[in-house]
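Continuing the batch. This is chain 6 of the set; chains 1 through 5 are on the previous pages. Same settings as before, nothing changed between runs. Recording input and output for traceability.
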Amino acid sequence: MIFEAKLEMIDSIAKITLSGELDAATAPEFREKVEEAVEHKARRLVLLMNDLTYMASAGLRVMIFAKQSLGPGVDLYIVGAQESVVETIEMTGFHHGVILRDSYDAAEIENL
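Output for chain 6:
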């Protein structure tokens, strides 16, 4: 499946929708979207992963880059990640620095 990353800015919330397979070859496209979110001074980053079928360590590195680049006051939500992706995040301990959700809850996520 072809990888795709789409950024949508709603006020100061950056939503990046990821689909396909996120690996070393496709991670630069994801990083580009993260950098755009940083440029827009996003106060919250939401990664919508319902259609992400695979994530290699390169994808995890981009998520860590995102968390560091946006700063300590910015929440990073991971929404709809498949079990294999969640396992990768949990094995590294990165789940302690992000908010994992099964589905998008606008009342929670968009309430800044």
